Amino acid sequence: MFQLLQLLNDGQYHSGEAIGKHLGISRAAVWKRIEALELSMGLPVERLKGKGYRLPQGQWLLDQALIEQAVAMPVTVYQSTDSTNQAATLLLAKQAAPFLVLAEQQTAGRGRRGRDWVSPPAQNIYLSLVWPVKHSFAQLEGLSLVVGLALYRVLKQRLPDLELGLKWPNDLLLNGSKCAGILLEIVGDPSDKCHVIIGVGINVNMQQAEIDQAWTSLREASQQLLNRNQLVQQFIVELQGMLEQHFSQGFSGFREEWQRANSWQGQAVSVSTASQVIHGQLAGVADTGGLIVTLDSGEQRVFSGGEISLRKQHDS
């Protein structure tokens, strides 16, 4: 399937005979693979008698050179890898940060708290940005919120009519369902020199998947096939500027904007820690990025980091 997509990615017509010869399959098998592209990935394959098949517009695959030109840092694109965070960790041993890693497919994509991240090929965005932490571990406070806010800004600009929102600490919601997630991992000594690997998964053009929670994609909500190269470019450029501000000034400068985008602001929530479950009303986030919850007694508590789970009280 991926080889066929690579062939059609130029936007030109290719005859069934030429495709079959390139892939080493029969013309009947070519037809079945074309049909699979349409059904499983929802791609608009055009057919023209005497000329063959083509994907209009081209650029259905991630373009390393195009992305690198926009983001002004080294970019590596894998056809398939276990996870972009793991690939970035291995590259860090021989490459100076910052740099960006992307993959068309992940075979062992990971989300927060050890969950799997479903990663079908050539439909979504799976990326890891490696960024140096130059001064102190405290600079990481609120970082996942800044990353989510950068993505929120870009998507609001591109698709202003969508009902987008942020969920503490690492999710972007679309129509109330998960559309993107963030996973931060530290490499090195947090008390000395270290790097943060900012892993981001975005459901872009995916239409079918077996996922154990409510999910959606940008395509499902907007009814548009989105150009992933453009989205990566815009997101990373936006994120770079916000990271510079965050690492020099902290999260406090983003706090009010993040709270305006907070999908669960003021709602009744349950916060689960390793030892207890606390019920209250979500009051916002602190200058450090910690979650503020107002308890029934009126006391406010701040939660940050660790294995904390946040749910609405009526959710199971």
TrEMBL record:
Looking at the record, the residues that make up the BPL/LPL catalytic domain are: 60-247
- InterPro entries per record: aa-tRNA-synth_II/BPL/LPL, Bifunct_BirA, Biotin_CoA_COase_ligase, BPL_C, BPL_LPL_catalytic, HTH_11, Transcriptional_repressor_C, WH-like_DNA-bd_sf
What are the recorded GO MF terms, alphabetically? Answer: ATP binding; biotin--[biotin carboxyl-carrier protein] ligase activity; DNA binding
Q: Which SUPFAM superfamilies match?
A: C-terminal domain of transcriptional repressors (SSF50037), Class II aaRS and biotin synthetases (SSF55681), Winged helix' DNA-binding domain (SSF46785)
- Residues that, per the record, bind biotin: S83, T84, N85, Q106, R110, G111, R112, K178
Q: What is the enzyme's class at the highest EC level?
A: ligase
Q: Which UniProt keywords apply?
A: ATP-binding, Biotin, DNA-binding, Ligase, Nucleotide-binding, Repressor, Transcription, Transcription regulation
GO cellular component terms attached to this protein's record: cytoplasm
Mind listing the GO biological process terms from this record?
Answer: regulation of DNA-templated transcription
Known catalytic reactions? biotin + L-lysyl-[protein] + ATP = N(6)-biotinyl-L-lysyl-[protein] + AMP + diphosphate + H(+)
Superkingdom of origin organism = Bacteria
CDD domains assigned to the protein according to its UniProt record, in alphabetical order: BPL
* Residues in the DNA-binding region annotation: 16-35
What EC number(s) are associated with this protein in UniProt? Answer: 6.3.4.15
PANTHER family registered for this protein in UniProt: BIOTIN PROTEIN LIGASE, BIOTIN--PROTEIN LIGASE
**So what family is this one in?**
Belongs to the biotin--protein ligase family.
Q: What does this protein do?
A: Acts both as a biotin--[acetyl-CoA-carboxylase] ligase and a biotin-operon repressor. In the presence of ATP, BirA activates biotin to form the BirA-biotinyl-5'-adenylate (BirA-bio-5'-AMP or holoBirA) complex. HoloBirA can either transfer the biotinyl moiety to the biotin carboxyl carrier protein (BCCP) subunit of acetyl-CoA carboxylase, or bind to the biotin operator site and inhibit transcription of the operon.
Q: What is this protein called?
A: Bifunctional ligase/repressor BirA
Q: Which organism is it from?
A: Thiopseudomonas alkaliphila
